[in-house]
Design brief:
single chain, Phosphorylase Kinase, domain 1, Aminoglycoside 3'-phosphotransferase, Chain: A, domain 2, 2 domains, 5-stranded antiparallel beta sheet, 3-stranded antiparallel beta sheet, 12 helices, 46% helix
Length: 343
């Protein structure tokens, strides 16, 4: 098995015997390497190229866990298992951090939203996490990826990439560039919202895809929210917007036939209903007025990042074929147009 000796050494730090365990790679996710260790565990190697300060990940989880134990003791919050020496992380010989989590039997993750019940349950779960953490001191949390969803920064990076891009890459993306420049008014709206303090900085998940909630097998009940690496200070539009971006269309960001991209209103409404079932009393009136912008801002930002990466030579996002980032950026621009028409 890949990294077999390293995995064995890491597991021994937890007092586990690798010879008595079944280890299987889980291929979902593009950043960390994740393994199911049966019976009973999930093992994860953190990507140190993305998370430059992995200690911040474990520190944030510890702060959240300690707060929830006193304020919401019945809430199931997924935190790392400690090693024999009391550490949250194990460093391997190459300097990669590893973490161990409990595995919950009879649970599943899904990669696509198929029903409004799934959308509602997931949105409510993400909202519940933020609501429970609303009283926690946000100053105790660090940004695990600095300025991760800062649209102003992402637009500046796009402009810089455009200046440095090869003539061929600019030729291939000429119409796409025009499309993204056309929607740059969303950058101004984002700046207005954040600079005028209309949005409150909160503890948010920041990666609210459907496969980051754990469902009971054979039901739409959420067991817990997972993949908490980006649990850090953020604005509510990040969580709500990314749910809209990734839930509403039956086609993913990898779809190259844009005619298949559509807005499923029943899914959109279920997201809002589920999220506001937990967050309605928490959000200010100014924040509620920003709700219609959430999906557009996050779709624009992610599409812009795909386009920026293509112009830069595909150096950040994993690609499996040529022009994949170009196709992703095209996909997200089309989705943005559909969202803007709906708004």
């Amino acid at each position: 098995m890949e990294l077999g000796n390293t995995i064995a050494s890491v597991l021994q730090s937890y007092g586990l015997k690798p010879s008595e365990l079944s280890i299987e790679r889980i291929n979902s996710g593009h950043i960390n390497r994740t393994y199911k260790v049966a019976p009973g565990y999930i093992l994860q190697r953190i990507n140190k190229q993305v998370f430059l300060n992995p200690k911040a990940l474990s520190d944030n989880l510890r702060v959240a866990s300690d707060f929830l134990k006193t304020q919401a003791p019945d809430y199931l919050f997924l935190h790392a298992i400690k090693t024999f020496s009391g550490d949250d992380l194990v460093l391997d010989d190459d300097g990669y951090p590893w973490r161990l989590f409990p595995y919950f039997e009879n649970t599943i993750t899904i990669d696509e939203v198929n029903t409004k019940q799934q959308a509602y349950a997931a949105a409510r779960a993400f909202g519940l996490l933020s609501r429970h953490l609303s009283g926690c001191d946000i100053n105790k949390f660090e940004e695990t990826i600095p300025q991760f969803h800062d649209l102003s920064l992402r637009y500046t990076q796009f402009e810089e990439a455009l200046k440095k891009a090869t003539a061929e890459r600019k030729r291939l993306t000429a119409q796409l560039i025009d499309g993204y420049v056309h929607y740059n008014y969303l950058v101004n709206k984002y700046n207005d919202l954040t600079h005028s303090n209309q949005l409150k900085l909160r503890v948010t998940h920041n990666d609210t895809k459907i496969n980051n909630v754990l469902f009971e097998r054979n039901s739409d009940k959420v067991v817990c929210v997972i993949d908490l690496d980006t649990l850090m200070p953020g604005y509510f539009i990040y969580d709500l917007g990314d749910m809209i971006r990734t839930f509403v269309s039956p086609s993913s960001e990898e779809e190259t036939d844009v005619s298949k991209i559509e807005i499923r209103k029943e899914i959109y409404d279920a997201i809002l209903d589920g999220y506001l079932a937990e967050m309605d009393s928490i959000l200010s009136n100014e924040e509620k007025r920003a709700i219609p912008l959430a999906g557009s801002i996050m779709t624009y930002m992610i599409g812009l990042r795909f386009l920026t990466d293509f112009l830069s030579g595909d150096i950040y996002f994993h690609t499996s074929y040529a022009h994949q980032n170009l196709n992703r950026a095209t996909n997200q621009l089309y989705l943005l147009k559909r969202l803007e028409v709906q708004a």
